[in-house]
Write a structure and sequence with these properties.
The protein is mostly beta strands and 329 residues long. 8% of the residues lie in helices and 33% in strands. A five-stranded mixed sheet has the order 2-1-10-5-6. The two termini are 31 Å apart. The structure holds ligand MTE and molybdenum atom. The site of ligand MTE has 20 residues, from loops.
């Protein structure tokens, strides 16, 4: 249900800051801009403003990249670049309210990572700075705890932005600046990075950005890596999530997607942004069987059969790519 911190994938676009930033966590400062009373706040001050916990799926947009036949550059993840995590901190809207509210005309929430940038390069070309639409303010959090423990450096301690339902890159680690802005940042990671670029094309700001996650599921067991299965009864289980919408339903196929049966959810429901575990019982006769799962979210979006081809291998939610052939004897 919850991914232990030491098993959650780690993804860095730049070398992480020095571990010394954790030596006095409460002294960490974040600049809040684009509010009526902009100022710097320490983590100590944030802790006095509010406290909530949210469970979210943190997933790199490159999760599922390994299924692209075009072999995009980047880690060829199958399903490992995702986890479901409990985050504790203060809602961003509480922070904004305490500073007089969002300034007029602001349309984005822009977060900046606290990495030290090397000298001699244009900061805009490497800085980890991302903008999400202002509507994300409804659920966004500034968090200092993960799964009940202080946030580790690897996962963005001492302070991280969490944008529930949005792809991994928007969840800025070691955040040092949070600005409500009228336009998207012109940092390269926003303007040209993380764009869904058609095959053969070059990234440009007109292409869709990697923002909200799409509805997705996969089967965790049985798995072909565990070898040949014994014929008979089996519990087929996995995880499903809806991105910004709760997941509502999962169907499972044991014949490669020709016929489907509805699975049932089990385990706790930790809210719209968490994944749900699903299970279905099946009887598998000897032979080879292709197992697939297909989720539907509360808005009626159905996990698609096919991936959307793109240069960098982002946002793969294809149920067909995630289907697995198991051998039964
Ligand atoms: N400051 C900062 N934040 C960042 C990144 C980064 O390189 N620097 N990487 C992003 C990407 S691409 C992903 S997928 C997630 C990974 O979070 P994790 O390392 O805690 O799993 O963090 C995001 N936030
Ligand atoms: Mo990512």
């Amino acid at each position: 249900m919850i991914t232990p911190s030491d098993q959650l994938y780690v993804r860095n676009n730049l070398p992480a800051p020095d571990a010394s930033i954790l030596s006095d966590r409460d002294a960490w400062e974040i600049a809040i801009e684009g509010v009526k009373q902009p100022r710097r706040l320490t983590l100590r001050e944030l802790k006095a403003l509010g406290l909530e916990t949210v469970a979210t799926v943190l997933q790199c947009s490159g999760n599922g990249r390994g299924f692209f036949p075009s072999k995009p550059s980047g880690t060829p993840w199958s399903v490992g670049a995702a986890g479901c995590v409990l985050w504790s901190g203060v809602p961003l809207k509480t922070v904004a309210r305490s500073l007089g509210g969002v300034a007029d005309g602001m349309l984005y929430v822009t977060g900046t990572g606290g990495e030290k940038l090397p000298e001699g390069v244009d900061p805009k070309s490497i800085i980890v700075e991302r903008s999400v639409p202002l509507k994300a303010l409804a659920d966004a959090m500034l968090v200092w705890e993960m799964n009940g423990a202080p946030l580790t450096l690897a996962h963005g301690g001492p302070l991280r932005l969490i944008v529930p339902g949005y792809q991994g890159v928007n969840n800025i680690k070691y955040i040092k600046r949070l600005a409500f802005t009228a336009t998207e940042t012109d940092a390269k990671i926003m303007s040209h990075g993380y764009r869904v670029t058609p095959p053969g094309g070059k990234a440009d700001p007109s292409q869709p950005s990697v923002l909200e996650m799409g509805v997705k599921s996969w089967i965790n067991s049985p798995h072909p890596d565990s070898g040949t299965l014994a014929a008979g009864a089996v519990q087929i289980h996995g995880v499903a999530f809806g991105g910004v919408h709760a997941v509502k339903k999962v169907e499972v196929s044991v014949d490669g997607g020709r016929t489907w049966r509805e699975a049932r959810f089990f385990g706790p429901d930790l809210g719209a942004f968490a994944w749900r575990q699903f299970v279905i019982d099946a009887t598998l006769p000897p032979g080879s069987h292709t197992l697939a799962s297909r989720a539907t979210d509360a808005a009626g979006n159905v996990q698609p059969e096919l991936r959307v081809e793109n240069v960098s291998g982002y946002s793969n939610t294809s149920w067909d790519d995630h289907a697995m052939k198991v051998n039964v004897a």
